[in-house]
Amino acid sequence: MNVTLPIPDDLARRLGSGDELARRALEAFALEEYRAGRLTRSELRRLLGFATRATLDGFLRARGIDEAMTALEFDQDRQDLDRLGI
């Protein structure tokens, strides 16, 4: 699904290129949904396209979020690894 956001041209130019702005908007949206409890760590990782949990952990730490994984999230990661044959 693609979402279009109306941003005045003068502000859009100042805020960055289209791809850069789209990525920042996606990250901000995804992070807010994670903080609100509407996304799990596994879903957040998938939404942002991070290949590993470590990459997601670094992303979260850089934004001041340093939470331990829940047992459910750990189990979801284990299931993902099993599906990948790792």
Concise overview:
With 86 residues, the chain is mainly alpha-helical. Helices cover 66% and strands 0% of the residues.
Describe the structure.
The protein is mainly α and 86 residues long. It has helices at 9-15, 18-35, 41-48, 53-62, 71-84. The protein is elongated and about 45 Å long. It is built from 5 helices and no strands. The longest helix is centred in the first third of the chain and has 18 residues, at 18-35.
Write the layout of secondary structure elements.
Elements: H1 9-15, H2 18-35, H3 41-48, H4 53-62, H5 71-84
Helix pairs in contact: 2-3
> How many DSSP H or I helices?
5
Percentage of residues in helical conformation: 55-70%
Question: What does the overall shape look like?
Answer: elongated
Radius of gyration: 15 Å
Give the helix/strand class: mainly alpha
What's the rounded overall pLDDT mean?
A: 88
| Relative strand content | under 5%
Please tell me the total number of domains.
1
- Give the helices and strands as they follow along the chain: HHHHH
Describe the largest sheet: none
- Uncertain stretches: none
DSSP, total strands: 0
Oligomer: single chain
Distance between the termini: 30 Å
